[in-house]
Amino acid sequence: MVRCFLIHTVCPVSALGSGESRVLYSRVFGPDEAAWSDRDRGLGPEERRLLQKEKISVVARQVRSAVSLSREASGRLTVETVSGEEALALQEADGGVARLRAGDPFSEETSALWLAVQSLGFALVCEPHENLLLAEGTLQNLTRHCLETLHLLGPGSEVLLRSHRIDALLSRLLPHGQLLFLNHRFAHSLEKDVAAYAAK
Q1: Cα gap 152→157, rounded to integer Å
Q2: CATH number of the domain that 107 lies in?
Q3: What's the domain range around 152?
Q4: What is the rounded (10 degree) CA torsion for 81, 164, 8, 109?
Q5: Residues 162, 144: Cα–Cα separation, whole Å
Q6: Stated pTM of the model
Q7: Total H helices, total E strands in the chain
Q8: What is the CA radius of gyration of the chain?
Q9: What is the number of domains present in the chain?
Q10: What is the secondary structure of 40-79 as a DSSP string?
Q11: 100: which strand partners?
């Protein structure tokens, strides 16, 4: 099962310090860890929300660190593309997997799969037994749909104002955090559903 999906910045933003990342969108699947862990059982709803927000921020910082390390090691410069060139930007995207130790930030070990498209990072946090190849394909599919239907690379793109569209994509491509094995016919059907929703 996928623990969470997030979209965040991977390049410096003027309002943030170096090494920080701004989470633009996040969605957590499954039960809230704070509800059943002994240490956090006494927390109120607001404290649980803040704890969950901090866990998401930790993932974003770790992914941002992995992206900058990967980009430094490859020596490639990121080339800015404009709206309409999403497929090219996705082909040029950096990607990888980061292992998140138990307790940092989740109670058990998890894997964070990430794709960095220009200044945006897309990440899926999966449980340790999850099929990482299937998760990678799902992440690429989600990223492609987000870039194409929401025009996230265009000027003035507001991810926060389009969160309902991202929720709709997730409900079709990653229902309740479950990775789907897709055959060609089912994938084509999903593509038509997503295109119909995007046209609204």
Answers
A1: 5
A2: 3.30.450.60
A3: 2-199
A4: -130
A5: 15
A6: 0.84
A7: 6, 5
A8: 17
A9: 1
A10: TTT--HHHHHHHHHHHHHHHHHHHHHHHHHHHHHH-PPPP
A11: 110
User: In the prediction, which pLDDT does 77 show?
Assistant: 67
pLDDT in tens, 160-200: 677 888 898 898 889 999 998 888 888 888 888 877 877 77
CA–CA dist 9, 64 (Å, integer): 8
Q: Which residues pair with 61 in a beta bridge?
A: none
Q: Which own/partner pairs from 144-150 qualify as long-range (CB within 8 Å, at least 24 positions apart)?
A: 144/86, 144/87, 144/90, 145/169, 145/173, 145/194, 146/7, 146/122, 147/86, 147/89, 147/90, 147/117, 148/86, 148/87, 149/194, 149/195, 149/198
Q: Is the pLDDT of residue 29 over 60?
A: yes
Q: Phi first, then psi: what are they for 142, rounded to 5°?
A: -60, -45
Distance CA 166, CA 144 (A): 12
Q: What is the dihedral of CA 138, 127, 97, 10, to 10 degrees?
A: 80
Strands annotated E in the chain: 2-9, 23-28, 94-100, 110-117, 120-126
The structure tokens listed for 169 are 């994509």
Identify which of 188, 167, 187, 184 has the alpha carbon closest to the alpha carbon of residue 176.
167
